[in-house]
């Protein structure tokens, strides 16, 4: 009908009507495009909010996980430090050797830090990460995950340097089968502390490993702090609390 009126006005050379019809068409197209843009914008904001909510839940779990791992690592490093100090001394062997054995035995352990990062990986692989309008927030999330990757690469390099330690370690430890074991304590270890203390290569190796363990602990502290900061930032965006449910 609009086209018919336009053609009729054109034949009559009714230029005012022609102009009005053109204006109506242009305005209609503009409003249609604008409405489509508004709809897309609303959908983007809905998806952004959903992404922020998912990232918040993941960051909250990550923060709690790193806090637990740091506490465990710190306790182990206390045992490791005491064990290295004992091995590098002439102190009498204590009646309970277990803390010293744990300290020595775990010096070469550098497990990767593996908090759940499924949400971040999904958002980045699908391109939805860019829906987050705040450049500062995107950067904060990306920096944390980059540092997590870098920390795990550092741990991997530390693991690669433990071969000599375990080779030396086996010289001073005798393992026996425990027939009374009902769990994982199927092996009993006997440490030759005298030969261990006289082995300068071994002492040098465990001091180096203790240093690496302390470096790993400091790196884990940095990750824990970054995860907590990210959790607080996201919590503010979604109106939630960063404290995990059930935590005191």
How does this model look, in words?
With 248 residues, the chain is mainly alpha-helical. It has one domain. 72% of the residues lie in helices and 4% in strands. It contains 8 helices and 2 strands. It has a two-stranded antiparallel sheet with strand order 1-2. Helix 2 packs across helix 3 and helix 5 packs antiparallel against helix 8.
Distance between the termini: 70 Å
Q: What's the quaternary structure here?
A: single chain
**How much β-strand is present in the residues?**
under 5%
Mean pLDDT: 85
What general outline do the C-alpha atoms trace?
elongated
| Strands side by side in the biggest sheet | 1-2
- Unreliable stretches (pLDDT < 50, length at least 5) are none
Structure class: mainly alpha
C-alpha-based Rg, rounded = 32 Å
Q: What is the total domain count?
A: 1
SSE string, helix = H, strand = E? Answer: HHHHHHEEHH
The DSSP helix count reads: 8
Number of strands: 2
Helicity, as a percent range: over 70%
| Biggest sheet overview | 2 strands, antiparallel
Provide the fold topology.
Blueprint (H helix, E strand, L loop, with lengths): L1 H10 L3 H73 L10 H8 L12 H9 L8 H26 L2 H7 L3 E5 L9 E5 L1 H6 L1 H39 L10
Antiparallel strand pairs: 1-2
Helix pairs in contact: 1-2, 2-3, 2-4, 2-8, 5-8, 6-8
């Amino acid at each position: 009908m609009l086209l018919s009126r336009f053609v009729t006005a054109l034949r009559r050379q009714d230029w005012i009507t022609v102009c009005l019809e053109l204006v109506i068409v242009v305005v209609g197209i503009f409003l249609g495009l604008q409405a489509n843009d508004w709809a897309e914008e609303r959908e983007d904001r809905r998806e952004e909010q959903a992404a922020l909510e998912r990232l918040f839940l993941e960051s909250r779990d990550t923060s709690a996980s790193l806090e637990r791992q740091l506490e465990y690592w710190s306790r182990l490093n206390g045992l490791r430090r005491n064990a290295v100090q004992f091995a590098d001394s002439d102190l009498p062997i204590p009646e309970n050797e277990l803390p010293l054995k744990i300290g020595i035995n775990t010096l070469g352990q550098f497990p990767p830090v593996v908090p759940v990062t499924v949400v971040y990986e999904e958002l980045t692989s699908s391109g939805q990460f860019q829906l987050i309008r705040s450049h500062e927030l995107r950067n904060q999330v990306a920096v944390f995950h980059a540092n997590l990757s870098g920390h795990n690469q550092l741990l991997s390099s530390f693991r690669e340097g433990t071969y000599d330690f375990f080779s030396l370690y086996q010289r001073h430890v005798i393992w026996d089968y425990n027939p009374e074991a009902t769990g994982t304590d199927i092996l009993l270890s006997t440490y030759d502390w005298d030969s261990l203390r006289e082995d300068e290569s071994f002492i040098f190796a465990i001091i180096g490993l203790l240093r690496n363990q302390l470096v790993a602990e400091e790196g884990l502290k940095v990750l824990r702090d970054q995860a907590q900061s990210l959790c607080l930032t996201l919590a503010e965006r979604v109106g939630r609390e960063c404290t995990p449910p059930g935590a005191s």
